[in-house]
Amino acid sequence: MSLPIAPGHPVPDASLIAKTRPDFPMTGSGTDRTRPAVQAAAPIVILVEPQLAENIGMCARAMANFGLSEMRLVAPRDGWPSGGGLKKGATAAASGATHILENARLFASAAEAVADLNHVLATTARERGQMKRVLTPAEAMPEVAGRVGGGERVGILFGRERIGLTNEEISLADAILTFPVNPAFASLNLAQAVLLNGYEWFKTTGGEPPFRENNPSPPAKREMILSMFDYLESELDLCGFFPPGKKPVMTANLRDILHRLDMTEQEARTLRGVFKSLVEGPKKARLLARQAGEPEQSED
């Protein structure tokens, strides 16, 4: 297939440069432009004859989510960037990951796209009868991380949306990547396949979630918990909650339930306040009703 641009040539787009400035707000809930982007070496994503510009954009977004930055395109159906490839939805679908689209490299064939790589993986959902190792992304990424860490260049081939990779293209790879999916419905969207591989890569290489739980209150001390137990049990005793002879067992069960909450000091204070309101609230309501001359409501 003849293409108007030399294989491996970067495809710049001046209109995108402003949108990749550090001070330009990236769209998407949870994106924090004040934090540095992941820039470590990573596998190269190779999309073979992608059919939809929107899918290319969504793949770029998935890559950016998990620290993958290099995209290679093999003969996109709508051209790149000629034929409206960038204009017909790719940029919008990338949701800010335009730096990946801007630096995408174009190749005429899968063989050319992998020529400079040391190790290649091919994704497929179908058994191809080839004598290759078959790995899930979780199984493959530790080895990939070792190779990348040792200076090798590793690429992952992703096929066409409708028919995937050909057997000839898969023959270019060292191993096959496939996903543990429902065999009755194994087909994945192109961006989903990129996302799952990116997730396993990021997890394998020590990726951390952008935030953890934030609870400034320290764990509750035992004396605070026991005081709450004493208060609750005494009030339950007053209202006749415990049947004769059952109090020791029921008290132990209640304490076990509350212990499993593993409360902080703030949580213990809040829970005790709830118990106190349940006890004293009706008394206060009756007092206010008497003061206002209103009929008191029955508790039944």
UniProtKB/TrEMBL annotation:
UniProt keyword Methyltransferase present: yes
CDD domains: SpoU-like_TrmJ
Name of the protein: tRNA/rRNA methyltransferase
Keyword Nucleotide-binding: no
Any Pfam family: SpoU_methylase
PANTHER family, sorted: TRNA/RRNA METHYLTRANSFERASE, TRNA_RRNA METHYLTRANSFERASE SPOU TYPE DOMAIN-CONTAINING PROTEIN
Matches recorded under InterPro entries: Alpha/beta_knot_MTases, RNA_MeTrfase_TrmJ/LasT, SpoU_MeTrfase, tRNA_m1G_MTases_N
UniProt similarity note: Belongs to the class IV-like SAM-binding methyltransferase superfamily. RNA methyltransferase TrmH family.
Gene Ontology MF term list: RNA binding; RNA methyltransferase activity
Region (Disordered), start-end ranges: 1-34
Gene Ontology biological process terms in this record: tRNA nucleoside ribose methylation
Keywords, sorted A to Z: Methyltransferase, S-adenosyl-L-methionine, Transferase
Gene Ontology cellular component list: cytosol
Positions of the tRNA/rRNA methyltransferase SpoU type domain: 44-196
